Amino acid sequence: MSAPRIDYQAVFAVTPSPYLVLTPDLVVVEVNEAYLRATGRTREELIGHYLFEVHPDNPADPDADGVRNLDASLQRVLRTKQADTMAVQKYDIPISGRPGVFRAKWWSPMNTPVLGPDGEVRWIIHRVEDMTEFVLTRPPRPKPEAGGEREAMEAELYTRARELQHLNEELREAHDRERRTALTLQEAMLHSPDLAGHREIAVRYMPAARSLNVCGDWYDVVDLSPDTFTVAVGDVVGHGLEAAAVMGMLRSALSAAVRAISEPGRAMDVLSLYARTFEGALATTAAKAVVDTRRQRITYTSAGHPPPVLARPDGTADLLDQATNPPLGLVTDHLPRPQATVSYTPGDTLVLYTDGLIERRDEDIDVGLRRLTDTLGRHTSLSPDQLADTLLSRLGVADGGRDDIALIVVRL
């Protein structure tokens, strides 16, 4: 038996909570009956009108801030594409047919984005709960000064609601400042001047979900000669600004070392010695590969890092796992780090990545590696940019994962 067809417009019309539907330009395009009852407005007064044209601040209230607070919430929804719940607001509403006359109202609003197929905000659902009766009434007490107590309670509730609103605004502003600072720092530390000259290389940087958009993973591209360049990825233990700061130091040190010492194993030795000089760098993992385009060969090394992958146009994919040593700074005896060399054919694809791309808490790492090589084998004909996006999507981390991710895709 097929499921009955639902008339969503009829369901919306009788939903008990008051709802408005807004465009990204904050024009009212739909309203339900509960909202009309709560505000005393008609559909004709609302549909097709700018929200703050039909709901202005009460000019008789010098402290009115409903328009400012609601607009700030709606702009956050448009910017973040996430729902925003507001503190209780005093937002008086005009009385129909009585220009300039307002009715005192308190509301508990929530604004929710509706995304289109392109991932952009198509509409905003504005839901409110009328808190006026709660604010203005309380259980009666047989005292002559009950009216005064009611007014005192009203004032206290409203004051605390305003304090909560202002505190929320301050916290949001502080978070936005920290996030902007972190992003500026991260962009500066991840800048690779030589990358601009390599159309055959695509990079991706994905901080862990719910992070500040900064992390301890990195990527780097360095030209060594007209025929030789090197690519590298690394992973500092931890997340956030502290890990990002350590990442910046190690990335810079490795970039400098490989310019002076072209062999990736010896350059990684230098980095390992440097990592032992400060605690935050211990147990960092990294992988580096030097690509010689004239001889068509790749020389690589790994410090406790997941192996790079070399994918062929015929669908095969090989793990470059013949030169692996412990993470940086953990070995006290100075032994030369191994490096290995493999030949490639023009059209092959080299992929370096950090473990956030393949590791999952509930499965063995070999499962993630197979998922990576299988995906590469099926999609190696894509361009580097398309292949990078496909890897993130097919491995389930297109919107970020539990761990940070750095990814380099090189079409050889």
Automatic annotation (TrEMBL):
Residue ranges that the Swiss-Prot or TrEMBL entry lists as coiled coil: 154-188
Gene3D superfamilies linked: PAS domain, PPM-type phosphatase domain
Domain PAS: 4-58
Keywords: Coiled coil, Hydrolase
SUPFAM superfamilies: PP2C-like (SSF81606), PYP-like sensor domain (PAS domain) (SSF55785)
The UniProt record lists the keyword Coiled coil: yes
Pfam families: PAS_4, SpoIIE
Domain of life per record: Bacteria
Residue ranges constituting the PPM-type phosphatase domain according to the UniProt record: 200-412
Protein name: Protein phosphatase
Source organism (scientific name): Streptomyces rhizosphaericus
Top-level taxonomy: Bacteria, Bacillati, Actinomycetota, Actinomycetes, Kitasatosporales
